[in-house]
Amino acid sequence: MSADVLLLRAVPLARRPVVARALRGWRLLVGTPADPGQLHLQWWELADPAEPPDALPAALLATRPSGPGTVQLIAVCAPDGEHAAAAHAAAAHAVRALIELLRATSARKLVASLPSAGEGDASLLAAAGLGRVTGLSEIALYAIEL
After folding, report:
1. DSSP characters for 114-128?
2. C-alpha angle with apex 24: 20 to 30, nearest 5 degrees?
3. Where does residue 75 fall: left (phi above 0), alpha (psi -120 to 50 degrees), or beta otherwise?
4. What count of other Cβ atoms lies within 10 Å of the Cβ of residue 19?
5. Taking Cα atoms as reference points, which of 93, 84, 82, 115 lies closest to residue 47?
6. CB–CB of 21/60 below 8 Å?
7. Helix H segments across 27-83?
8. What is the spatial distance between Cα 85 and Cα 18, in angstroms, rounded to a whole number?
9. pLDDT at position 118, please?
10. Cβ atoms within 10 Å, residue 41
């Protein structure tokens, strides 16, 4: 997969099995585990459009609407292993691309949460431009105005 041509795109239903295959060995960087079979979730993939239809993407995101004008980032996933640093960079790139994509819609805010301090990757959210929302103690909430 060439890093020069990676695009964020919605995952069509026909590619959900590829998402499921990827998630079996990937690391959850942000959010909670999500099932590609959940139809209320919108899955996004950072992928090379020239790759074959069964090729794994560089990163996966899951979102859902969360109130008027708000989109919730449910999960950010990337490959684990010896190329973890590159996968982390691809995941941050995918979140930034999602923000740009959402700016062209009626969405006005993207939110994401980490279950508790020390769980999840706050640096990935910060690198994508999301800031910590203060005043909540049980979860770490991050948001960006679009």
Report:
1. ESSTTSS-HHHHHHT
2. 90
3. beta
4. 22
5. 93
6. no
7. none
8. 22
9. 54
10. 18
State how far Cα 22 lies from the chain centre: 14
Distances 105 to 68, 72, 77, 99, 102 between C-alpha atoms, Å:
12, 14, 24, 10, 5
d(CA 90, CA 58): 6
- pTM to 2 decimals? 0.90
For residue 14, what are the CA distances in angstroms to 11, 48, 64?
A: 8, 17, 19
Handedness of CA 15, 125, 128, 65 (dihedral sign): positive
Residues 27-75: tens digit of each pLDDT = 989 988 888 888 889 999 999 999 998 899 999 999 999 989 999 999 9
The rounded distance, in Å, linking the Cα atoms of 78 and 51 is 17
Cβ-based neighbours of 112, under 8 Å, separated by 6 or more:
30, 31, 72, 73, 76, 125, 130, 141, 142, 143
Token pair of 3, please? Answer: 């890093």
